[in-house]
Amino acid sequence: METSQKSVTDIRFVCRGTFVHSTAEEALQILEDALLGVDSKGKIAFIGEGTDLQRLSESFGFSSCAVTQLGQHEFFMPGMIDTHIHAPQYSYTGTALDMPLLQWLNTYTFPVESRFQDLEFAKKVYTQVVKRTLRNGTTTACYFATIHTDASLLLGQIANDFGQRALVGKVCMDRNDSVKHYKESSEESQEETCRRFVKELLNKKYPLVKPVVTPRFAPSCTEALLAKLGEMAKNNKLHIQSHISENLEEVEWVKELFPNSESYTDIYHKCNLLTDKTIMAHGCHLSDEELVLFRETGAALSHCPNSNISLCSGVLNVRNVLNHKVKLGLGTDVAGGYSPSILDAVRRALDSSKVLTIQDPEYKTLSFEEVFRLATLGGSQALSLDERTGNFQVGKDFDALRVNVAAPGGPIDLIQNEKPQILLEKFLNLGDDRNIVEVFVAGKKVVPFSEP
Ligand SMILES: Nc1nc2[nH]cnc2c(=O)[nH]1
Ligand SMILES: [Zn+2]
């Protein structure tokens, strides 16, 4: 049993039943008839065996009648982590998937993002995306907003109001934007607006929302802007996010735009943008040397398989990334990826891995347990938030989903007395938000939504 030293009056609630999570050693650890206590700060105070109820209730000072007992087909799993999602693009998710990346950006993305100067429109879309992702079990989201500072701050406020853990980035870009009006109205430079965004968001002191320095990707930024953003992130120990090596046309373009750099990764590295708080989306076409640079700097990748397939960008060799010991999480990449659910990302990651096995039978297909780890603990490591979230280790925040695999009216039929491992596998492959009956972030129930 694991406990932390807590005073006897500190327990907010206790649950008993099956808990499934990942650790560094085990992609899937199943704790049957376990007892987990959450303290008044929303942290996991203890996790032990159900049969230890008497002793635990005495040492932690809670009443054994106040324990919530999970049903036979229920389990708790860690909240899922979306390491890469574009909040404004939620407005057209599920459409516009008929072009490759660079044409897609110019035709659909930039015109839509330019509308986020309008705060009413931003409020509507950002409320929808936060609610939709929370309902789908995303307890932590790493968001791109748009270049608009006020609307990006609004996204931070909405995530805070609904209780979602979030990294929020005001997008920075100072060249190659095809839509001329996709610019902020003020005279401030992109570096200045980023600095103001970071300062104002930090001033709000939201407990679960942090800013992330967000150069869109190398083709949208001059080297001078990349260098200034890298310096700002370094001086203030900020998170960084961007895109890298998503499609081959983009990689070729980057070579033309940065003729003096050894590789795409080298550009970011030279500008101090590869740190242990960096997450780069995609990386489908990175070389082994570039993966080594990721490993050495502690930078992470976000695997966005729905987007990679939908925009015909490429197939990430996840096994190779893991063999290089590069931190890796899953991302939806809405709206390049059409689904806002990390459950979908789990399925597409498994499918993509099987496609690689079809092409090369020697390729070791990912197991559902490994992908479960990517969706939870892997994501927290990729975002450098693993001291706070990602699994049920004592001392971490209780970010969790209460899953009922047999939820009435839900998509899953159970035939016999399925064991927890099978229940999890069925949920990952067949489940949806109807099975996610409660969502907790930092010990607070955030789904079902409380009435305003
Ligand atoms: N998928 C995706 N790739 C990008 N690269 C630069 N911007 C974007 C974006 O919005 N979506
Ligand atoms: Zn993206």
TrEMBL record:
<dbReference type="GO" id="GO:0005829">
    <property type="term" value="C:cytosol"/>
</dbReference>
<comment type="function">
    <text>Catalyzes the hydrolytic deamination of guanine, producing xanthine and ammonia.</text>
</comment>
<dbReference type="InterPro" id="IPR006680">
    <property type="entry name" value="Amidohydro-rel"/>
</dbReference>
<dbReference type="GO" id="GO:0008892">
    <property type="term" value="F:guanine deaminase activity"/>
</dbReference>
<dbReference type="GO" id="GO:0006147">
    <property type="term" value="P:guanine catabolic process"/>
</dbReference>
<dbReference type="InterPro" id="IPR014311">
    <property type="entry name" value="Guanine_deaminase"/>
</dbReference>
<keyword id="KW-0862">Zinc</keyword>
<dbReference type="Pfam" id="PF01979">
    <property type="entry name" value="Amidohydro_1"/>
</dbReference>
<protein>
    <recommendedName>
        <fullName>Guanine deaminase</fullName>
        <ecNumber>3.5.4.3</ecNumber>
    </recommendedName>
</protein>
<feature type="domain" description="Amidohydrolase-related">
    <location>
        <begin position="76"/>
        <end position="446"/>
    </location>
</feature>
<keyword id="KW-0378">Hydrolase</keyword>
<keyword id="KW-0479">Metal-binding</keyword>
<comment type="pathway">
    <text>Purine metabolism; guanine degradation; xanthine from guanine: step 1/1.</text>
</comment>
<dbReference type="GO" id="GO:0008270">
    <property type="term" value="F:zinc ion binding"/>
</dbReference>
<dbReference type="InterPro" id="IPR032466">
    <property type="entry name" value="Metal_Hydrolase"/>
</dbReference>
<dbReference type="InterPro" id="IPR051607">
    <property type="entry name" value="Metallo-dep_hydrolases"/>
</dbReference>
<dbReference type="InterPro" id="IPR011059">
    <property type="entry name" value="Metal-dep_hydrolase_composite"/>
</dbReference>
<keyword id="KW-0597">Phosphoprotein</keyword>
<comment type="similarity">
    <text>Belongs to the metallo-dependent hydrolases superfamily. ATZ/TRZ family.</text>
</comment>
<comment type="subunit">
    <text>Homodimer.</text>
</comment>
